[in-house]
Amino acid sequence: MATWMMRLDDVGDGPRLAVKDAIDVKGTPTSAGSPAVADRAEPAAADAAVVATARSQGARIVGKTNLTELCLGADGVNPWFGTPVNPLDPSRVPGGSSSGSAVAVATGEADVALGTDTAGSVRIPAACCGIASLKTTYGRVPLDGVHPLAPSVDVVGPMARDVAGVTLGMGLIEPGFTPAPYDPGMTVGRLRIPGVAEPAIDAAVDAALRRAFRIVDETCAHFVDAVLANGAFVGEEAYRHNGHLLADSSRLSERIYRRVNGLKADAKGKRGWAEATQRAIRAELDTLFKRHPVLALPVLPTVAPPPPAGDDDLLLCVLTAPFNLAGLPVFALPVPLPGSHLPTAVQLVGPAGSEEMLCGVAAALAAALS
């Protein structure tokens, strides 16, 4: 049961929608995966805006899913409510923070799930569990009724077993959403971030992309700084919105108590630099999009790891966080990893507001891989 915080018996014949327990569902408390929040949570008076829209489109809310405590971790581990089991390999983490949402759709218990993504939290669990997900453009999906981690970079996005499911999810949260046709003459800019991904991961992503596209190598000078700058936003804002929970350390795990304080300390005095870095990477990526409609790189530097010690889980964000800082949409799709029982995954990155195009491109890649 670690996948679910609660199951709901919503009758009907519409798509089964699982909702991360950082997003309000009317009549249920929102825990954000933490006793510090759950202890004082009242049943939500209304659905979060994104849930209300999905319900209006016929979605059946079948439950609220587990997550990393306060959404503040990339492994999906939760010492309070249990850790959802990775269906591909129980000895590996499910990825976080939207761990339960990923497992719910990977195991067929939901058709679509909603997750939140602040530094990779729909893409990382999708990659770990072998499913698809879409990090939406910052501001495209309303955050009303969503527990805040870092509202300057938080987004909500759909997760599903395949591209069609993610497209269905976008239609639930944005009525009328329609993928754009894929342009077979396009090139894909293959972002090379030296020394981050294992060589086998890079090779698998390259092989997958070449099945469908002509790829052109590109670099990104501000990428590493963007990882740190996104962390500065998260550190400052996570404390601003969750720091009051530190008053009772017994209701937070030692890791998260330390992390909220540590990220705040790391972020001190860096807001101006982080905002300048945000402008710089947006400008650099905009230049790349003038050459290629889509950029691509791995989601994770390795396959889903065993449960980590200390803060090693944050290393899972090194290829995902810059796109939160830039506010761009990213489609995550599993691709085969030769010699492994686990897949790896590719990120397809587009300009702001290009979710329709990304769904078409992801469908073309999935068809080539099948």
Helix content: 25-40%
Strand content bin? 15-25%
Average pLDDT: 97
Distance between the termini: 32 Å
Q: What is the global morphology? A: globular
- N-to-C series of helices and strands: EEHHEHEHEEHEHEHHHEHEEH
Radius of gyration: 19 Å
| Low-pLDDT segments | none
Strand order, main sheet: write it out: 1-3-2-4-6-5-10-11-9-7-8
The main β sheet shows up as:
11 strands, mixed
Q: Given the structure, what is the number of helices?
A: 11
Report the strand count: 11
Secondary structural class:
alpha/beta
Multimerization status:
single chain
Short description:
With 370 residues, this protein is of the alpha/beta class. Helices cover 34% and strands 16% of the residues.
Q: Care to describe what's here?
A:
The structure is a single chain. This protein is an alpha/beta fold. 34% of the residues lie in helices and 16% in strands. The protein is built from eleven helices and eleven strands. An eleven-stranded mixed β-sheet has the order 1-3-2-4-6-5-10-11-9-7-8, with helices on both faces. Strand 10 and strand 11 form a beta hairpin. The protein is globular and about 55 Å long. The mean pLDDT is 97.
